Amino acid sequence: MNPAAENILGISQQRAHGQSLLQLVDDEPEMGDILTRVAASGDHYANEMRLAPTEVHKDERIVECRVSPLTVDDARLLVEITDVTRRSQISRENALLIQHGAGRQMIRQLAHEIKNPLGGIRGAAQLLERQLHDPELREYTDVIISETDRLVGLVDTLLGPGGPPNKQPVNVHELLEYVVRIIEAEGQRSPCIRRDYDPGLPLINLDRDQIVQAFLNLVRNAIAALDGQGTLTLRSRAVSNFTIGNVRHRVIASIEIEDDGPGIPLDMQDSVFYPLVTSRPEGTGLGLPAAQELLSRHGGLIEFESRPGRTVFLVRIPLQQHTGDNNG
Asked: How far is residue 220's CA from residue 257's CA, in Å, rounded to a whole number?
């Protein structure tokens, strides 16, 4: 083991002496499969795999594992492990930004195609209503008008709040607590809420209303996933040297909204930020794309990690806000 291997595996060479490599990676089946395959075939093999959290590394990591046949003394295999977690995160961030751009374009097209005809339908229904004297017939025009208004509201939700952000110095923890009070006032079955705030986070120039709406969408989703049971964790951290898109930030605020619910279905994980994508019958599929749009106006980004028992949405907000960060 070289020093890099000690760091990745979270154990010194002295403590690891005499242990199987598989023991050091919690018997990761993919690792076992690679070792067996190379030992049997003599071919080189490489693959990406996930390493579970350890006492040293609290987060799951993505590593690239290369195994080669070797004949040096008693050694038969050379295992090279490279931590590519950050590289994978950057690729995923770029994919999220592309997805958001495509989603925003879809929203604009939907708004154009739907909103204009709706005005005509509503106007025609109102004119027709004036010609009808039978109350039973007027019920039908009332349905047309009310459903048209509902669709207009849906389109307005898709478009989100208009105009550039009105940024003022705010405390993100105060915004999170405000969101919790809104949720509690709605009278839903609330799960246990745990706070893990970094008291050192400074005030950030943000549009209070827009960021509250983004947090509210994320917290509502988490509570819906928990269905009144489990734990919702609100966490904040300062993260240094973080890249969002093509911009490298010296420090960002990372706000995490975590639940221990069933997780996002695998077949939906690549599309949750597209409009109208939802796994809940009562859901609209507008909460996440709207939240992503509001964060993009602040030069930020929302990422997520999800598996059964742990789903966390990570809201990345640059501490240094600039007037050109609204992106829209």
From this structure: 10
Strands (E), the chain: 45-51, 61-72, 75-83, 167-170, 192-196, 204-207, 231-244, 247-259, 301-307, 310-318
Residue type, position 121, single letter: I
Using the predicted structure, report yes or no on whether residue 62 has a pLDDT greater than 50: yes
Q: Which CATH superfamily is domain 167-326 in?
A: Histidine kinase-like ATPase, C-terminal domain (3.30.565.10)
Q: Are 235 and 218 in contact (CB under 8 A)?
A: no
CA 109, 115, 118, 123 torsion-angle sign: negative
Quote the CA–CA distance of 206 and 318 in Å, as a whole number: 10
Q: What is the pTM of this model?
A: 0.58
Asked whether the beta carbons of 261 and 230 are under 8 A apart, the reply is yes
What is the CATH architecture of 3-83? 2-Layer Sandwich (3.30)
**pLDDT per residue as tens digits for the range 110-160:** 666 777 788 888 899 899 988 888 888 888 888 888 888 877 776 665 565
Give the whole-angstrom CA distance, residue 20 versus residue 11: 13
- Return d(Cα 278, Cα 293) in angstroms, integer: 17
Q: Domain extents for the chain?
A: 3-83, 87-159, 167-326
Q: What is the DSSP letter of 280?
A: S
Side chain identity at 86, as an amino acid letter? R
In the predicted model, is pLDDT for residue 283 greater than 80? no
Strands 192-196 and 231-244: parallel
pLDDT value of position 326: 44
The overall average pLDDT reported for the chain is 79
